[in-house]
Amino acid sequence: xxxxxxxxxxxxxxxxxxxxxxxxxxxxxxxxxxxxxxxxxxxxxxxxxxxxxxxxxxxxxxxxxxxxxxxxxxxxxxxxxxxxxxxxxxxxxxxxxxxxxxxxxxxxxxxxxxxxxxxxxxxxxxxxxxxxxxxxxxxxxxxxxxxxxxxxxxxxxxxxxxxxxxxxxxxxxxxxxxxxxxxxxxxxxxxxxxxxxxxxxxxxxxxxxxxxxxxxxxxxxxxxxxxxxxxxxxxxxxxxxxxxxxxxxxxxxxxxxxxxxxxxxxxxxxxxxxxxxxxxxxxxxxxxxxxxxxx
Length: 295
Hints:
The chain is α/β, with parallel strands linked by helices. The protein has helices at about 10, 20-25, 45-50, 75-90, 125-150, 170-180, 185-190, 220-225, 235-245, 265-280, and strands spanning about 30-35, 55-60, 70, 70-75, 95-100, 160, 200, 245-250, 250-255. A hairpin with a 2-residue loop joins strand 8 and strand 9 (about 250-255). The mean pLDDT is about 95.
């Protein structure tokens, strides 16, 4: 929310060691692994992941047996490698794995022998949408495969699943959904184009609240809270801020229902902390981003 529009932080800003959940979990004794089954140079991940504190980073180049769907590594093959991380780790050693899938990357007009269209719309004229929805069907099946494995894993496991943006499919299909041209959307309707779902699943039956809306900057801190993991002062701050302002984006800040009054000081503090975390390494408020001696 505090970076310039259309900025790619991986390419521009994460060129030195940076506080992240990878470093947080590493400090707690976890193995930390980042896995992206595409090129290591894509969005500078080959340098960014180590700077974020990941002990190991693996990419498409590290494997010779990845299977594809529409030329991209399939989710099913991707999850086989994730399962391999669980199979190979020492028993009792906790694991933090950050996996960025690539199967459903655009464009959605790729003709390939390995792809079967699984979803067809009654109203024709949206081939990209049909391909994208078919990809989601493949993803559903692959996710079921992964969770079925993890369901009986002998150690507690939590899976946090989220998307980074909506698909680039036909504008005409979105206009069909909205019932109007995209140029005539209201501000609230336009925000709907930037909403993506997330899911938190555990193999130990953790009861979680449904329909908790938030912007992506809060998700990491929220996960620590609901999993009852220790929080740094920064995570505590974010969870408190989320209660008042659950949505913070370049398109605006939306307060929680019933929140009134001027909290500009709180919002300014968030902006200053973000600046300190990304840019002011000389005067980094280290105590804000690390656990104290008592965890």
